Amino acid sequence: MTPSTRDGPADESTDEPATDGSTGGDRSTGDDRSTGDDRSTERRAGDAIFRSDLGRAGRSAATGAERDPEPDGGPRVRIDGVGKRYGDQWALRGVSLDLDSGVLGLLGPNGAGKSTLMGILTTFTAPTEGTITVDGVDVREDPTAVRSRLGYLPQEFGVYPDLTAREFLEYLGALRGLSRATARERAVDLLSVVNLADAADRRLDTFSGGMTQRVGIAQALLADPDVLVVDEPTVGLDPTERARCRNVLADLARDRVVVLSTHIVSDVEATASDVAVLVDGRLRTHTDPETLVETVDGRVWECVVDDRATLAPDYLVTNTARRGDGRRVRVVADDPPTDDATPVDPTLEDAYLALLDDRDPNGGGRP
Asked: For the segment 244-261, what is each residue's pLDDT rounded down to a tens digit?
């Protein structure tokens, strides 16, 4: 039996290699586990899978136990001049970032290099140039040691639908080398961390998309990683589940690095302490959300235009909503786009779209 995946759109990028989340055996094997009796038999026969404890992996994320301090004299994650070339095409070039505890929101249009960067960080892909270190360990020199410090939730996360949430996490804990006792303890603790303790013994095929995503976050935390990498975790979720998922990530980032790759700017605005924007394989900016928003402060307007009217093509329109009196549009521009335009508070999405825009800033171009 192969694990099922939650519903949701696939990554639209066409020029970056996909990652499947199989770091360190996170994803399930292809064995047939179709009935409860089969599962019990396999667990008894597979006790050898429950190998030695991974030392630091036994610490519970739910107990508030003190984590390893960040390395002296440097950031927890250092990305230095990283590039990746496929043939004669560079998917990523000259990217440098220093990351400490908190959420990094990784933004960029399709094909910008986000998936490539995450592939290198999670050791799926080797960089053509540059280095990445996690707690001082180079991803190329010792990828196994780096994997032990990483947790990863891919966009398409597969589960065994006939297992309960507790059984699923215990099984993945076994594949990661946790002892039976530690795997059980971690499963219980992590389901509490992601607010699924009451659903621990429900089969996964009864879970909503948001609940499945939270199980995905839990599996990424089994080894108590210093760095958590998540790819589009809220795609396809309803607003309530999106908020729950974001809250979990924000809580986890208090003492670890969380790299959040997404197209949903509001998720970054709600959770990120830092934001990095990739465009055409290069880093366009790395700053905090507030500073990025300030780049369009005093330059965001709303106005109502007649359906038959059009704004000059030089204006950057970030939102349009139909109203009874016409179309209410949101515009980024140095000057009011119409006589009755009113200034409004800028959002991170306004600033992000302006950053990507190449038009004359007098009509909404790049700040």
From this structure: 899 999 999 999 999 999
Contact by Cβ (8 Å): 277, 352 = yes
**Assigned CATH topology for domain 77-287:** Rossmann fold (3.40.50)
Q: What is the pLDDT of residues 264-278, one digit of tens each?
A: 999 999 999 999 999
CB 92 within 8 Å of CB 116: yes
Is residue 75 within 8 A of residue 136, CB to CB? The reply is: no
Can you give the three-state secondary structure of the chain, one letter per residue?
Answer: CCCEECCCCCCCCCCCCCCCCCHHHCCCCCCCCCCHHHHHHHHHHCHHHCCCCCHHHHCCCCCCCCCCCCCCCCCCEEEEEEEEEECCEEEEEEEEEEECCEEEEEECCCCCCHHHHHHHHCCCCCCCEEEEEECCEECCCCHHHHHCCEEEECCCCEECCCCEHHHHHHHHHHHCCCCHHHHHHHHHHHHHHCCCHHHCCCEHHHCCHHHHHHHHHHHHCCCCCCEEEEECCCCCCCHHHHHHHHHHHHHHCCCCEEEEECCCHHHHHHHCCEEEEEECCEEEEEECHHHHHHCCCCCEEEEEECCCCCCCCCCEEEEEEEECCEEEEEEECCCCCCCCCEECCCCHHHHHHHHHCCCCHHHCCCC
All structural domains of the chain with their residue ranges: 77-287, 294-357
Rounded-to-integer distance, Cα 245 and Cα 214, Å: 7
The pLDDT tens digits of the residues spanning 93-144 come to: 999 999 999 999 999 999 999 999 999 999 999 999 999 999 999 999 999 9
Q: Taking the model in full, what pTM does it have?
A: 0.77
pLDDT at 4: 53
C-alpha torsion angle, residues 118, 122, 126, 128 (rounded to 10): 40
